[in-house]
């Protein structure tokens, strides 16, 4: 568990924030925050309270109050990797895609903070404190950790943006990349050092860095950062799932069937009480509502993953209780991933067959189990509730849109302050640097004996260049 939180989890969380499609994310930030914070709290209350009451009734393995709600909090960490892969392959509505993806990345951090807060509230030093005082203290601690950690991550990211804006490392990509790596881990270490959440800090650091700092980097460093983070995230996520698979055979288990069954029922119930009421609440403030079809798919996308399993390993209860909770969590993760993940495609086909006559054009695309791929491709959609960044910039330049709220102040004040303005010479140098690397790659391929027909290669290169221009 210590290696998980110090080594494996930070790259996954940072990458999810750094490579997300910011235009879609910020346009839906209100709804995403509602689902990630209120939704996770509702799910934790339903599962934790249900397990505690069923234990008192003698229907399931009995857990005390703190253990029940710790379990409810950790099992509320959703990881809809299979669902998102299918969403991307089928080109579902980008709003639905971003709501599920945005909720999942914030939900991970919220679940970790909530579980830690509950475990700390149940410590021996809190034994003489009343129930109401414990609850109020836990709520205060949660919001203090949440906003304090977010502030640390945001401040570090803004500092990195100003440093790279005013210190010219444009011609030294290696030093630029090394400095970025230092800034990435700084908020995690700083937040953990002051007993806040390093995960929450590094997530907000990634989001803000991608919004400001990324544009102060040279083209080579931009590409290097994105691909390196994706590679690290993929390797760490794969390691966690390998560990999860080995855990089936490597650790002692105690299966409490009644607890497993009731946990699954409460998880689905908690997800329903989370998604449907909060969607109706969000629709009162959205210009384009969340449809019933989207609500059902969001409810069905509540898969549990490696983070829930790692949190269960991190619990410091007595050996018997810990074994029961780890086993139950492992079974829930496997069940939701296989059954809910595998049932997403049939559910979508069924809902489409029962839906209206409006059919969106879909691209043939291979399904890849990665939630870190591009989520911001411009797709024709009847329910598109936001502009992509490219459309936003183009329409603003043409005077066809009026930016409102944060997007307006960001464009007028924050971006000019945090993002440097490159001269034409710097832009030309960056372009020529990338062109030289591309030319070198092309020359190496051209001289390779494996290439028998260069005309096909030239055609592919021209197609790729046309895509980049578009």
Structure in a nutshell:
By secondary structure, the protein is mostly helical.
Strand-helix topology:
Elements (H helix, E strand, L loop, with lengths): L1 H17 L3 H6 L1 H28 L8 H10 L6 H9 L4 H28 L9 H36 L6 H21 L4 H14 L7 H32 L6 H27 L8 H9 L5 H9 L4 H36 L34 H9 L7 H14 L5 H23 L7 H16 L1
Helix pairs in contact: 1-9, 1-10, 3-4, 3-6, 3-11, 4-6, 5-14, 6-7, 7-8, 7-9, 8-9, 8-10, 11-12, 11-14, 13-14
Task: Label this structure with key terms.
470 residues; mainly alpha; globular
Computed CA radius of gyration, to the nearest angstrom: 24 Å
**Main beta sheet:** none
Number-wise, the strands total 0
Shape: globular
Question: Per DSSP, what share of the residues sits in E-state strands of 2 or more residues?
Answer: under 5%
Secondary-structure element sequence? Answer: HHHHHHHHHHHHHHHHHH
Structural class: mainly alpha
Total helices: the number is 18
What share of the residues lie within helices?
over 70%
Rounded mean pLDDT score: 78
Distance between the termini: 46 Å
Low-confidence segments = 357-365, 367-400
Write structural notes for this entry.
There is one protein chain. The chain has 470 residues and is mainly alpha-helical. The chain contains 18 helices and no strands. The model is unreliable at 357-365 and 367-400 (pLDDT under 50).
